[in-house]
Amino acid sequence: MFGSVSKVFRQRAFFSRAVNEETQALKNVSLEVAAGEVLGLLGPNGSGKSTTLKLISTVLLPDDGRVIVAGFDTRSHGQQVRRCVGFALASERSFFPRLTARENLEFFAALEDVPRCDCSDRVESALQQVAMCDAADKQVMKFSSGMHQRLGIARALLKKPSVLLLDEPSRSLDLATSSQLRELIQELSDGGIAILLATHNFAEAAEVCDRVAVLQKGSLIATSRACSLSDRQLREFYLTLMGEQNLIAWNEEVPA
Amino acid sequence: MIFHKAAVVMKKDILTSLRYRSGLVFNLVSVALQLATFYYLARAVGPQFRPDGMPYVMFLIVGTGLYTFLIANIHSFLQTIQQAQQGGTLEVLMMTSTPPAELLFLSALSSFAGNSVQFVLYVGAGMLLFAPAVKLNAVGGAAVMVLSLLIAAAIGLIAAGLQISIHKGSAVLWLLGSCAWLMAGTLFPVNALPKPLQVLSNLLPFTHSLTGMRLALFEADSTALLREIGLLLLFSLVLLPVGLVFFTWTVRRARQCGTLSFY
Predict the structure, then answer these.
(1) Among the four A12, A210, B92, B162, which has the fewest Cβ within 10 Å?
(2) Does residue A252 surpass a pLDDT of 70?
């Protein structure tokens, strides 16, 4: 649950109180995601999608408001929150490049308190879920962007999270893998996992999300049920909210 | 669980080192070169110079060996953070179920083990080659080593915290290392310094680590050794909680400011 959350990034020197630059990343945003629900976060670049995910994962702490995950406040019970949140980052640079995919996952599984006896099975199962068994013993530095992306999702699944955060998960994936990913998201939500999906892809949002939330300049401007909408209808909904100019800019950046 | 985590972290570091083979070879060569340097330096100074009653070459080897060991251990904390920042893994590591301070200790573990092996080889090789009259106090030596490690860990936590907050932990470590190099009795006895610097030298934990280790290796006087161990214990009791609190505070502050991955 996200209750009236605000986040401001202030640039200042370590020993000084004077602020050089201030960016309002989120303004009074309130959201709630139930177990087994998939919530899509839509919005142009810089609208606050990744900040929202980072606040839930405790990489960031809110300035105002509260972020409650599985009953725990991220401010006071960060460790408990981290135990139940899996986060697949959009960044490719989050693995040890000289280690293989399996070695990387074994390392992160241990840090996630996966019991030693379950470690191999958990890693194997995560690799299977993202269809990466063939590349498991390849060094990560030889991976393509799409493979990094899938490995990031596998890592997020290692701890069997109750909340899964996906930041543009299909960004570098080919059509077949994207489709597999959507099936996986559906399967995970059917299993009771609450999923937040930041995406620029209307088709993906329309296919897997139960609801979508549209963010603009850090404010939540609308939420809507998405399961009954086609990607075209979702696109029109977005267009109405953001204005045509924003949609053109959007289409130029990422093909939906 | 903690042993499993430690084993996995060590495995990751060993595999990474083995896959950067050239770095490993350079490291071994540099140790051999260092030993040779001190042997020839001591020969040039001559056998009549016996600081603290021991051959100068052994004074140098224990001094520089332990100094390097402590600085390398402090640096391993800093390096863990720097590498994670530059490699893009810091945010991911800080999102795992392992608390940040525990994670830092675990990540520094293989460096600690490597540095310990290097220190024992370095001093052991020095003793074998230059065969001085050793009066080893094993318990005292182990106590000095363990307490010095705890102090190094505490300073390492502070350096790592500074790296997260001001992104310049290495500059602070460089300053501390230079002060210790001058004042801790690494290359020459502390009593060669002017009085005010001798007072400052006594405030450095490194000075007591070096003195304690030399006493444990070459002197039978256990009263002086006990005094050094007592001082090292005091330093570790003060510095460890300070290091832990400071590091935890800087991580929390970075989460608040959104600067966790900045470098």
Answers:
(1) A12
(2) no
